[in-house]
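User: Just a sanity check before I run the rest of the batch. Below are the structure tokens for the first item. I only need the designed sequence back.
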């Protein structure tokens, strides 16, 4: 089902793809839970804290082969396929952006927050996102213009506008060089000094960001993640009434994101948090790799 820029394609609502994605996320969750308590063979990727297991690779292959069989024209950006050398390219074609296990370090350690994250874009616009937090058995999803849901119940952000009353979620990530670590820790220091009510990190960007959609947290920011970590949860936050930004408009390839309950909270975080340079996932944008404020 190729979707060129035609009025017909503009009218497509992609619900069939969403339903299929949800059924696959449930199957993938079973595979993740079966392996959760078992011994894992762990390999390193970009750093000593960037891990992959056989389950990450197997789940991604299962998802992609099932989707490809049903939608042969569709394209993919998958974390483990990119790690294996596949190009990371977002085109106008219908594209599935997949993180087979978001929270692999948690998975390896049996820390109980791991998720399957699936986003779907057409003409580079996200049409829906699915985040399945497997151990919690929480299925988050959102479709463009149709709201966000947790296990079928509508989601709403907190609406908090005062940063000093916020719980802010972030991730430490896998970067371990001095500049990244000092930037990360000084960002947390500055937020705590505002003060905010608390800073949290669950170990999965997808689930972290979904906390903003539920109103359980008021904001999330992250530097250094990849598009597959946050593409699905970004539309979930947006459809729950939240704000998703970068320095300017949200750009899922920039490796920076702020998701917040209100634009005033997003702006305040943007003033406080500094970014360290990260190579974009794909495409180019002026100043995208600079060390400017997030
Ligand atoms: O476990 P993954 O997919 O590498 O993702 C991490 C990125 O830091 C957690 O979101
Ligand atoms: Mg991830
Ligand atoms: Mg992953």
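Assistant: Here's the designed sequence for the first item:
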């Amino acid at each position: 089902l190729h979707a060129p820029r035609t009025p017909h394609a503009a009218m497509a609502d992609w619900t069939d793809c969403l339903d299929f994605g949800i059924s696959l996320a449930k199957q993938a969750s079973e595979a993740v839970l079966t392996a959760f308590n078992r011994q894992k063979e762990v390999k390193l990727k970009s750093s000593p804290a960037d891990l992959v297991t056989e389950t990450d690779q197997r789940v991604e292959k299962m998802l992609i082969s099932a989707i490809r069989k049903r939608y042969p024209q569709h394209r993919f950006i998958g974390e483990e396929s990119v790690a294996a050398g596949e190009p990371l390219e977002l085109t106008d074609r219908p594209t599935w952006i997949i993180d087979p296990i978001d929270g692999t370090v948690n998975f390896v350690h049996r820390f109980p927050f791991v998720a399957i994250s699936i986003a779907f874009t057409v003409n580079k616009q996200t049409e829906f996102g699915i985040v399945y937090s497997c151990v919690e058995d929480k299925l988050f999803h959102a479709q463009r213009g149709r709201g966000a849901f947790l296990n079928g119940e509508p989601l709403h952000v907190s609406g908090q506008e005062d940063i000093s009353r916020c719980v802010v979620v972030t991730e430490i990530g896998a970067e371990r060089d001095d500049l990244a670590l000092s930037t990360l820790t000084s960002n947390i220091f500055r937020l705590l000094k505002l003060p905010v009510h608390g800073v949290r990190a669950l170990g999965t960007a997808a689930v972290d960001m979904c906390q903003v959609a539920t109103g359980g947290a008021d904001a999330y920011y992250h530097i250094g993640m990849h598009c597959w970590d946050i593409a699905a949860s970004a539309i979930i936050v947006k459809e729950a009434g939240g704000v998703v930004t970068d320095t300017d408009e949200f750009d899922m390839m920039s490796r920076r994101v702020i998701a917040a309950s209100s634009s005033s909270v997003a702006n305040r975080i943007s003033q406080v948090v500094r970014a360290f340079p990260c190579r974009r996932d794909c495409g180019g944008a002026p100043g995208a790799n600079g060390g400017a404020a997030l």
